[in-house]
């Protein structure tokens, strides 16, 4: 559908909300949102305008949830490996010494994009406790969805993804593709005997900081684009809706069937030797 615009051909909050409603977003929805605002094109008030449009579309009984991941405080993340590539030992030590401890109130999530940061810093928003894979949420169900995020469970049964599954949430891919669909990670946990690995990050300790090491499922999103394409091909009617918001191609996906499909697909396609 064509973008609906206000004066100056820039979509405003009400018109963006109307486009979301046309896509299928309903009052009372719980939405896990992945967004590329660059793909969306100009929107009045930028990320704040998009968040306001999302909240208008889900209404006062709905909830907007975003990933607020923080790979910046870990030395076992791809982000860290890229950051220290080519540095000598002294420079690497300096990077590690400067990495701040995770604080759910203060720690930014710069790699998650402008919308995620706007949700995280909005008045009344909550954030889950995991020091690397937290979620932020705003709306009626935020507290329930974010509670109990165990620090040694990135994206499994003791994370907001499982609470979103229970809530029959929907995933909004706003100008992004399935490669960014974090809900598929819950399928990794539900595979029989998923591989595990060691993680390490900086956490708060009595007003200071310390390194904390733990074991969890080995997360891998390298095949999520292929997984998403297979899911969409097999999806039942109503499980995936497609359309446009502004200049962005978008998908509105039911989280439960997406995770259920992911569990089976990943089990089949990830062999023991992969």
Shape: globular
Total strands? 9
Runs with pLDDT <50, length 5+? 1-8
Order of helices and strands: HEHHEHHHEEHHEHEEHEEH
Outline the biggest β-sheet: 7 strands, mixed
- Mean pLDDT comes to 92
Which structural class best describes the helix and strand composition? alpha+beta
The number of distinct helices, counting runs of at least 4 residues, comes to: 11
Strand content: 15-25%
Binned, the helix content reads 25-40%
User: What is the CA-CA span between the terminal residues?
Assistant: 41 Å
Strand order of the largest sheet: 3-4-2-1-5-9-8
Alpha carbon gyration radius = 19 Å
How does this structure look, described?
With 274 residues, this protein is an alpha+beta fold. It contains eleven helices and nine strands. A hairpin with a 2-residue loop joins strand 6 and strand 7. The radius of gyration is 19 Å and the shape is globular.
List keywords for this structure.
single chain, 274 residues, alpha+beta, 7-stranded mixed β-sheet, two-stranded antiparallel ribbon, 9 strands, 35% helix
What's the quick description here?
By secondary structure, the chain is an alpha+beta fold. The chain is built from 11 helices and 9 strands. A 7-stranded mixed beta sheet has the order 3-4-2-1-5-9-8. The chain has a two-stranded antiparallel ribbon with strand order 6-7.
Structural topology:
Elements lengths: L12 H11 L6 E6 L1 H4 L5 H13 L4 E5 L10 H7 L4 H10 L15 H7 L5 E2 L7 E5 L2 H5 L13 H7 L3 E5 L9 H7 L5 E10 L2 E10 L6 H11 L5 E6 L2 E7 H15 L5
Parallel strand pairs: 1-2, 1-5
Antiparallel strand pairs: 2-4, 3-4, 5-9, 6-7, 8-9
Helix pairs in contact: 1-3, 3-6, 9-11, 10-11
